[in-house]
Input
Amino acid sequence: MEYSTGELAKACEVSVRTVQYYDQKGLLKPSRVEHNRRVYSEADKTQLESIVLLKSMGVSLQEIHHILNESEDTATLKVLLKKKEVELEKVLTQTKQKLERLQKLDELVGNDSTGLLANAHHFEQLSSRMDQMSQIRRNMLITGIAVGSYQVSALVRALTKKDWKIWAKAIPFRVLVAAGLTAYYYQNVSYVCPNCQTVFKPKLSHMIFANHTFKTRKLTCPNCGETHYCIEVADNNKLI
Output
């Protein structure tokens, strides 16, 4: 099957100007020219489809030209494609990091929030302290799993031996661990007001009984006096 410039553009879902541009760049040449009318073959259509695909992947025209001219050199093609893959992975990583920073900024900024955007250094500090919370939660999770395993073991022994004293003896240990985890958490965590970005540590009783989500607690800011779900951040005055 043969195609005119317009027919080829339509078949490959590109503009006529695109076909003409690739022709000017030496990437796509017609099979023949009749009375100033360019005629393209199926092979030319396949080549244009390859150009469009490579261009959509971010491959430069110079690289595309090299790939098309070295089409039988599989090793060269693989090297160029691998190079582009590495570049795209780097861009993806950078984009992911930007997205994570934006998500953190969105968490920290309330509807009426002021001041944070004007203080980039403050945001950087808060962002870093939010990251440190992952380690604090991980430490608590590991301890919780260990205590849970001990509880299950005590319950199994109590049921097996039909001796509930075994279970009862484990209660003081569970209470001590719970108290220890609470103290550890309180010592290592502060909260950020989403309205004024003040970092503060509430009273222990307020923290314990406040409504909360996985990463926030509903507290009253000592600076602006407003009550919000405040974001947890690591307390820089304590060791994790």
